């Protein structure tokens, strides 16, 4: 059995300019921890696979398509493939999410 302790997963600045770390990757899924500091923004982009976000810590804004919502811990946000998405730590605190892409890229 493999147990991954998210609090021990350390990130680095990714090509989109925010801190992230791939937690697990295989042919069926990629799981990434995204850690936004207050006022960080993961700009609009889309990917050719289905995505969902699980909010681990804090509160922030997630945009999916033309909609934006403030989301908090323990919420899951679904993004269909080829749909624009953005994440913003715009609520006065750090914002940490788990991003799951299925299938893997």
Describe the structure in brief.
By secondary structure, the protein is mainly β. It has no helices and nine strands. Strands 1, 2, 3, 4, 5, 6, 7, 8 and 9 form a nine-stranded antiparallel beta sheet that branches.
Helix and strand arrangement:
Elements: E1 12-13, E2 19-26, E3 29-36, E4 41-45, E5 50-64, E6 67-72, E7 76-79, E8 85-88, E9 95-102
Antiparallel strand pairs: 1-2, 2-3, 3-9, 4-8, 5-6, 5-7, 5-8, 5-9
**CATH superfamily, please?**
Jelly Rolls
Count of alpha and pi helical runs: 0
Poorly predicted tracts of residues? none
Strand content: over 45%
Beginning-to-end CA distance, first to last residue: 24 Å
Order of helices and strands: EEEEEEEEE
Radius of gyration: 13 Å
Helical amount among residues, as a percent range? under 10%
CATH class: Mainly Beta
Number of domains: 1
Q: What's the shape? A: globular
The biggest beta sheet reads:
9 strands, antiparallel
Total number of beta strands: 9
Q: CATH topology, anyone?
A: Jelly Rolls
Mean pLDDT: 97
Q: By helix and strand content, what is the structural category? A: mainly beta
Going by CATH, the architecture would be Sandwich
Keywords, separated by commas or semicolons:
mainly beta, Jelly Rolls, nine-stranded antiparallel beta sheet, 57% strand
């Amino acid at each position: 059995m493999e147990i991954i302790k998210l609090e021990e997963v350390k990130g680095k600045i990714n090509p989109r300019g925010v801190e992230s770390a791939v937690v697990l990757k295989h042919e069926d899924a990629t799981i990434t921890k995204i850690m936004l500091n207050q006022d960080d923004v993961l700009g609009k982009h889309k990917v050719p696979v289905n995505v969902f976000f699980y909010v681990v810590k804090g509160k922030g804004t997630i945009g999916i398509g033309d909609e934006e919502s403030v989301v908090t811990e323990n919420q899951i946000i679904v993004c269909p493939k080829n749909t624009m998405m953005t994440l913003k730590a715009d609520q006065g605190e750090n914002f940490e999410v788990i991003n799951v892409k299925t299938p893997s890229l």
